[in-house]
Each structure stands twice: as C-alpha cells, then as structure tokens.
Amino acid sequence: MGKKIRTPEVEQLFKAILTLNDVEECFTYFEDICTVNELLSLAQRFEVARMLRAHNTYIEVAAKTGASTATISRVNRSLNYGNDGYDMVFSRMIENGDLEE
Description:
The protein is mostly helical. It is about 70% helix and about 0% strand.
C-alpha cells in the first residue's frame, strides 16, 4: 500500500468501530461515515474475497458481484500476498456460524 495507514486517526477510527455492538449499530454508523457507493464497494470486495476463497472462477465472481476484473485481481492479490486479514475474518465468522465454509 502506497500510503501509510497506521496513523493515529486510523487507529481512532478502528477503536470507534470496535465499540459497535451489533449489525444494526454498524448500519447506523457506516451510513454516517461512508457514502452508499463506498460501503457497497467494500461489501463487494468482501464478497469477491469470499467467493475466491471458495474457489469460484473470475467469471463466476464477476457474474455474481458485478466486480470488474481489476477489482477481482486486486482482491485476489490481497488474498495471496496480503496480511491474511480476509482469512482471519472468514475464520472467525465460520466459528461464529456467520459464514459457511
């Protein structure tokens, strides 16, 4: 990533997010801090990552999510060479029963 993300402001944002108690509070907060398109883009990338981890093809992912091949490639690169953030979250969601394997 070109820009350094470990800033006091980003840390404060993450701490704010960690205070949210449930999905309804997430809707309330994220509707205030993101545009609809920003939030939908984040959700799309999450779904792309989930589908790639489930071994769906680029064509299947693009057809279901509407994501561009550039977005799918970027997410795939994160899955393969990133910090394992997606896998950490997927694993926890599976443990909690919030995501199927």
